[in-house]
């Protein structure tokens, strides 16, 4: 039994209407479903295999690249001449991070210790840990400034101590020893008679206290009650704020622990985080949108005010005593040692700093820091944190080791911590949190488009059937089939007669 076109048109009309209705419902319901899926995947919950594994064990490539500023003219520096340095490196270390002592609390927070280990990657490095470089001796030049306001006899005694242990103003040692520690009789002496003066009770090295250690106990919100708070720090080592700085604002512990951020970002969002290594909270700002390994991202960078001094940016007054903009004085959280943090090569700092040292050439591509974040989830896709460690050096009366050194903030090393999501983790992330939401978003337009096309087809089918019926009706009226019989009878009769 043939189905008429009018019936087919009605069927297509109903199907098209349902498709449009379903697509329209998806327009309103789809984003809710997508957001709900994101919320379930980004909250800190052991039931969420993807995000919890990324948060707990950080199963992505992560590296620390270290560059040394090798001093070319140490003898001339002692005579008061301008320092000249040559950058050596990078010396690259694969970084392994994992969280332990994970404890969930009733107020929707979780506490943990994050440990880190470093493994030298010779194939990625320019040089070896056996390379010998010359840098300032922090034990001598740092201690000299720390003691410059002490009575003159004490400074003489300190200088005598340096001579006794054969400690000079500069160190010439292999990279590996400078990084992870070297034996020093002076260090042993200070630890025996002045315990707590140095950060390490063993070998003395620039990163000795970082390897096989943790960055303190963080307590962060899980986001299970409010996704806007996920990863935000509730306390660090039990503290709601620190006491290193001179203002309440500067002592605040803001943002996250620096690994993930709350989802649903926009271009007005910022990336606040607390850094135990810098002893303060920092905040990055939106720069531009882009794509990283097929995933849409927002790039966040350090604002020019990050290391500005109090004169250039009053809210930073609490971080003073300040020098030129571009330097952060971290002596208060580094045993009062005259240590400063900056961007590498004094990038984005007061140009006057570049005039005090020869051999520096800052540029944003090599020395600016950035984090690329997937805005819908708050998960970093590509990270490059670059910081420089500097030591204030100068001549101190009574301490002959300091010679006639001109006062200068001396670059020692700069390092870059970088990581990116890749491999199976990237594929799973892209599928669950990028591709599937995108498919659902496209589906609403596909259903609406197909529905409208089906409705249009149904209308055309219905109209064509009506037009054909009208034409057929006119033809049948002009030629009456019954008249052919009445005309045929006379002819037959004539033929018979």
TrEMBL record:
Keywords: Cell membrane, Disulfide bond, Glycoprotein, Membrane, Receptor, Transmembrane, Transmembrane helix. This is Scavenger receptor class B member 1. The lineage of its organism: Eukaryota, Metazoa, Chordata, Craniata, Vertebrata. GO terms for molecular function: lipid binding; low-density lipoprotein particle binding; scavenger receptor activity. Belongs to the CD36 family. InterPro entries: CD36/SCARB1/SNMP1, CD36_fam. One of its GO terms (biological process) is cholesterol import. Its main location: membrane. It is a multi-pass membrane protein.
């Amino acid at each position: 039994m043939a189905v008429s076109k009018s019936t087919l048109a009605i069927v297509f009309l109903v199907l098209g209407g349902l498709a449009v209705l379903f697509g329209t419902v998806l327009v309103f319901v789809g984003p809710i479903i997508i957001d709900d899926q994101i919320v379930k995947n980004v909250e800190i919950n052991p039931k969420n295999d993807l995000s919890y594994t990324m948060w707990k064990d950080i199963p992505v490539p992560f590296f620390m690249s270290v560059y040394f500023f090798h001093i070319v003219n140490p003898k001339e520096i002692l005579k008061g001449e301008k320092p000249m340095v040559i950058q050596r490196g990078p010396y690259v270390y694969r970084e392994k991070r994992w969280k332990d002592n994970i404890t969930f609390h009733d107020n929707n927070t979780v506490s943990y210790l994050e440990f880190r280990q470093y493994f030298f990657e010779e194939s990625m490095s320019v040089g070896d840990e056996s390379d010998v470089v010359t840098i300032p001796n922090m034990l001598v030049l740092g201690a000299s400034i720390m003691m410059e306001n002490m009575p003159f006899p004490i400074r003489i005694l300190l200088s005598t101590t340096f001579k006794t242990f054969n400690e000079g103003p500069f160190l010439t040692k292999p990279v590996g020893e400078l990084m992870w520690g070297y034996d020093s009789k002076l260090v042993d002496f200070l630890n025996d008679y002045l315990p707590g003066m140095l950060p390490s009770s063993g070998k003395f090295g620039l990163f000795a206290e970082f390897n096989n250690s943790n960055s303190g106990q963080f307590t962060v919100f899980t986001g299970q009650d409010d996704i806007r708070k996920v990863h935000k720090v509730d306390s660090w080592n039990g503290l709601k704020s620190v006491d290193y700085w001179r203002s309440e604002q500067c002592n605040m512990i803001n943002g996250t622990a620096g690994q993930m951020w709350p989802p649903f970002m926009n271009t007005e969002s910022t990336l606040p985080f607390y850094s135990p290594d810098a002893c303060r909270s920092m905040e990055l700002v939106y720069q531009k949108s882009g794509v990283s390994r097929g995933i849409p991202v927002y790039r966040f960078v350090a604002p020019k005010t990050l290391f500005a001094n109090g004169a250039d940016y009053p809210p930073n007054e609490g971080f003073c005593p300040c020098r030129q903009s571009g330097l952060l004085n971290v002596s208060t959280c580094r045993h009062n040692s005259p240590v400063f943090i900056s961007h590498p090569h004094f990038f984005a700092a007061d140009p006057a700093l570049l005039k005090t040292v020869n051999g520096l050439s800052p540029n944003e591509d090599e020395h600016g820091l950035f984090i690329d974040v997937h805005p819908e989830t708050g998960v970093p896709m590509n990270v490059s944190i670059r910081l420089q460690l500097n030591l204030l050096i100068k001549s101190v009366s009574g301490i002959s080791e300091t010679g006639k050194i001109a006062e200068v903030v001396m670059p020692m090393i700069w390092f870059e911590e970088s990581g990116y999501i890749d491999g199976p983790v990237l594929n799973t992330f892209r599928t669950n949190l990028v591709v599937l939401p995108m498919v659902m978003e496209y589906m609403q337009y596909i259903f609406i488009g197909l529905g409208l096309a089906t409705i249009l087809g149904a209308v055309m089918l219905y109209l064509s059937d009506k037009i054909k019926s009208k034409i057929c009706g006119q033809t049948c009226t002009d030629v009456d089939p019954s008249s052919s019989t009445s005309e045929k009878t006379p002819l037959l009769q004539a033929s018979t007669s």
